Structure formats: structure tokens, C-alpha cells
Amino acid sequence: MTKITRLTPDDRENLVAYLDGELDDASTQKIEKTLAVSSVARHEVEMLEQTWELLEELPREKASADFTQRTMATVKVVDVKSNDRAKHWLTRARKGLILSGWLTAITVSAVVGFAATRFWIPNETDILVNDLPIIENLDAYHDVDSIEFLKEMHRHGVMNE
Questions:
Q1: What is the DSSP string of 57-98?
Q2: DSSP string spanning 15-29?
Q3: Any idea what DSSP says for residue 4?
Q4: Residue 97, Cα to own-chain centre: how many angstroms?
Q5: Beta-strand (E) ranges in 59-132?
Q6: Region 14-34: what's the mean pLDDT?
Q7: Share of the chain residues as helix, strand and coil, in percent rounded to the nearest 5
Q8: pLDDT beyond 80 at 122
Q9: What three-state secondary structure class fits 91?
Q10: Nearest 5 degrees, angle CA 110-CA 114-CA 119?
Q11: What is the distance between the alpha carbons of residues 97 and 104, in angstroms, rounded to a whole number?
């Protein structure tokens, strides 16, 4: 019993080109070898040849007079659609720029707000830190009866703060 050799998918794709004589030498020889040993492959070639012959017997239709005008109108419609795609892209780019502008504005506002609360608005603990020397000597100041006495002590260097 002989093994039936079938056409590979690549050979099947090249079969029409083989029948039209459009294949290179290597592909042509490969298909011819397969056809020489395989009755199934020869049958497929015969069926394709019959199909082409039947197609040749069909009446040829001619294009109508307005075929060119309709085709050109279709091409113009396709061209208009491509312009619509460009407009769509520009619209999306414009929306992206607006969004990035808003995000930048919000970020700048947040940074300015943080800086305002951190550096320009006084903090109660900063006031206490600035008054720390006075707070440390509060007991000594409490025992003093007048401000003139404190000024005199400061002038003599007893109280440098």
C-alpha cells in the first residue's frame, strides 16, 4: 500500500501561482515532485484547472459609464474620514493639554499653600522658642520689683539676654 502524499499548506498557497507560472524554480520543482508522486495533489490541480476554465466561460461584465465617478466619490469619502481621524486626534491632544494645564495649576496652588502655612503664618511654638531665654529666667524676673533695676543689671552685664 502506497503512502498518499498531500500538499502542505505552503504548497497549497503556491498552487495557483504554479498554475499561472509565477513561482521561482525551487518552489516549482518542489510542487512538481509532489504532483509526480501524489494522486491527491494531481486531483487538486485538476480541480483548480477546471474551476479556472469554468470562470473563463462566464460572460464578462463591463463597468458602467458612471463607475469612475462613483469610485472617485468613494475615494473622497475615505479621504474625508481620514481628515476626521486627524481632527479626532487633535481634539484628544487639546483635551490632554487642558488637563495637564489644570494639573499644573493645582500643583502650583498646593505648593504655594503649603509654603504660606509653613513659612509666612507664625506658629505658636516658634513664639515660645523665641521667648525661651525669658521663660528660663522667669523666676528671677518675678522677684524684681522694677524695670529700672533690670536695665541696670543688663548694663553691667549681669543679664546678657
A1: HSPPP---TTHHHHHHHHHHHHHHHHHHHHHHHHHHHHHHHH
A2: HHHHHHT-S-HHHHH
A3: P
A4: 15
A5: none
A6: 83
A7: 80, 0, 20
A8: no
A9: helix
A10: 150
A11: 10
Q: Which residues contact 134 (CB under 8 A, 6 or more apart)?
A: 141, 161
> Which amino acid is it at 121?
I
Helix axes 39-57, 25-37, angle to 10 degrees: 110
Highest mean pLDDT out of 12-16, 111-115, 120-124, 128-132? 111-115
Map out the domains of the chain as residue ranges. 9-57, 83-121, 124-155
Residue corresponding to grid cell 498557497: 13
User: Which pLDDT score is estimated for 1?
Assistant: 46
Residue 24, C-alpha cell as written in the block: 521561482
Question: Measured between alpha carbons, how far is 160 from 133 in angstroms, rounded to an integer?
Answer: 10
What does pLDDT average to over the chain?
Answer: 79
- pLDDT tens digit string along 70-100? 777 776 665 555 556 667 778 888 899 999 9
